[in-house]
Amino acid sequence: MPSRLLIHALLLLFTATLVLACAGEPTPAPNTQRVDDSLGGKSDSPSFSATEKSRVLELVNQTTLDELDNVVGLDRRAAENIIAHRAGADGLLGTSDDLWFTSWDELDAIAYVGPAALTKLVSYVSAKAPVDLEQPCLIISEYIEGQGNNNKALELYNCGERPLLLHGFGVCVLRSATDLCSDSQALGGGMLQPGAVLTLCRTRGGTFQDPFVPLRDRCQVEMKSVLNVNGDDRLVILFDRNGDGAFDLAHDQVVDMLGRFGWYPSTFPFADVALRRCNLTPFLGDRYFSLEEHYTVHPRHDFTDYGVPPTPGCPE
């Protein structure tokens, strides 16, 4: 039989092992998740629609720590890391080194932002009406309707103070005497910085001088059907409010308009002309439209300012 001394020694060794094992396990911090929710990364993220992602990115680019922590209900560490990323190197919001979230992957890469946090963010923005988020400022800053089939172009300007996610925005054309979208096309993805422009055209192809070289070379997005315009067609910039991937004036948000609703011009005010925006306030097409109140008029093949941000101030 083992001696009492040996038994006593074994008991002491067993007790010491238990104490060391317990001491090695850290005590979780209060009011935080036990596990880093970002572990596993993108592959573990739930599947969300492009519109949901766009609204979340819009939120995190304008929200506060208090809203993320106490209203959305994120882990405190996730909320702090989102704000810290946005603040940039100097740690201060609203300065020149702020880092805006420009993609879903960028947000997903933040520590403690993973499936649980992303689901909470999507649920939060889905419960809010789009108007509860900052109203986007995207206007038609130039319109060109020249000779031939393809010298037709549009320029859009981010008149807001924050980068604008282009997903969910599109162009709708109203032809003849209708207030329905005859054709529409999404702008696609990407980010438009404050004060920057996006250039659209009917095509970069065509034949000699149709389109002219400056228009073709500066065009970023082709819209072959939408920009097949005549001088009496009205153009509307829309945001896909219900996220169905289509553009419908009955359900989507009007952001800016050339012309107005309920008005079919008896002449061709938008034919053989280049129009440059001088009033940078969005026009929603819900009142009388005066061309001179919003645009200056130029020769149809004057591409000087196409691709150049507009200058505010209309002639009196």
Q: What would you note in describing this structure?
A:
Residues 18-35 and 38-43 have low confidence and may be disordered. The protein has 316 residues and is of the alpha+beta class. It folds into 2 domains: 41-132, no CATH class; 138-298, Immunoglobulin-like (Sandwich). The strands form 3 sheets. A 6-stranded mixed beta sheet has the order 8-7-2-1-11-12. A 4-stranded antiparallel beta sheet has the order 5-4-9-10, with no helix packed on it. The N and C termini lie far apart (111 Å). The protein has helices at 4-23, 50-60, 65-72, 76-87, 104-108, 115-127, 213-218, 291-294, and strands at residues 138-145, 152-158, 164-165, 169-174, 183-186, 191-192, 197-201, 221-222, 234-239, 253-258, 273-277, 295-298.
